[in-house]
Amino acid sequence: MEKLSPRNAFHVLLLSLLMLSITARAAEITKLPGQPEDVRFAQYSGYVSIKEEKRLFYWLVEASTDAEHKPLLLWLNGGPGCSSIGYGAFQEIGPFRVLPNGKLSKRQFSWNTEANLLFLDSPSGVGYSVRSVVEPAGDNSTAMDSYAFLNKWLEVFPKFKYRDFYLAGESYAGHYVPQLAQVIVNHNNGLTRPKINLKGFLLGNPTLDPGSGNPGRYEYFWNHGLISDTTYENMRKFCTVDGDPEGCHKAWIEANANEIGDVNGYNIYVRPCGNNSTQDLMYRNGDDFCLETDTVKYMRRKEVQESFHVQTSYVPLNYTLCSEWNVQIRYSKSDTKSSVLPILKELIGTHLQIYIYSGTTDATVPLSTTRRNIAALKLKVQKKWYPWNHNDQLAVWIEVYEGLTFVAVMGSGHEVPMYLPSQAHALFRSFLSNAPMPKAPFKQ
């Protein structure tokens, strides 16, 4: 744990005393600033205390119709250390997106048409979540805190006890989601009616296993013309388990410094925003704008935080979507390099509904990396690779394994619901219904 100066120690003590006043409660959102008038679903937000020094922030968006009977989905963004509300809710699957003028527009393909959506800023210190002690985080503490959150949250929202429950997330949530699922399954063991009634989980471009997946990265870079033949051969030679770490490091330096160029790693075919932002430039009605930049501006506004019932004393003025100083640089490096494939294999044996999808233009967690990860599981193929159409056009390719369905989404970057919302929505509906996506008709 980092040693604090006397001045900082005083502020931490003051923060701890103030945080004692925060309790888990059902705080309804009357209306968010800039929210459209024709909103008919309920929204709640607030804090759940995990420990005295940890408060996790949530946003519940109830289903737009039949909320009392539809399932509950918990969405987690990765990083580690990035906000599920700032990314997942506002930029991907939630009911609103932020416009350049600071107002909100309704998202046509929000996932709350199919489920009640619960977004959690985790681990503590991310987004609107807060911690009063500066300490490292890791996979185990994140999973256990999220499980403790769910149990306490269900006491505030008892109507969701025993409801069909699903997990979803992307990127480093490839760690968060299976690990939380494992905790839930273990605690549910022997219960005939568990209150956290986990039915399955959905992972997008997930970080799963560097060991089996890393060769897929330089394969992807080479196959898409981002690196030279020489650099590719050096990576094949040096970037292996028994290779030369120094030679591998030099090969990647050569690639990044002299070969790849100004490519957006999250979607290699879409130009990035300015100001060194990695977030893509999005297009709406002929006008372009940066979702990430506009979302940050919106979430920094005092009236927005007040509407969300945020304890503004705890949120830094330089609020960011990814908490680099507080979480990312202190997150366990051994955990980020570890494999979750054994956990995934264990969960496949419990007969949960499991989908993994991968955008084909993502260079951060490329399709080839995920395919290598899945191959390492050595699962029996039930339905071999086949195409699926959406709105009469080729949209995805699917392979169904024993206990797992893999979907490659054509032309999408790292955040599939952001780039291709209609296709992602159809995929989500298929996942919830556990209905196979039909093979695309053959054309001469």
Automatic annotation (TrEMBL):
EC number: 3.4.16.-
Cellular component GO terms held in the UniProt record: extracellular region
Primary localization class, coarse: secreted
UniProt KW keywords: Carboxypeptidase, Glycoprotein, Hydrolase, Protease, Secreted, Signal
GO molecular function, one term: serine-type carboxypeptidase activity
Signal peptide span: 1-26
GO terms classed as biological process: proteolysis
Subcellular location: Secreted
Family note: Belongs to the peptidase S10 family.
Protein name: Carboxypeptidase
Originating species: Eucalyptus globulus
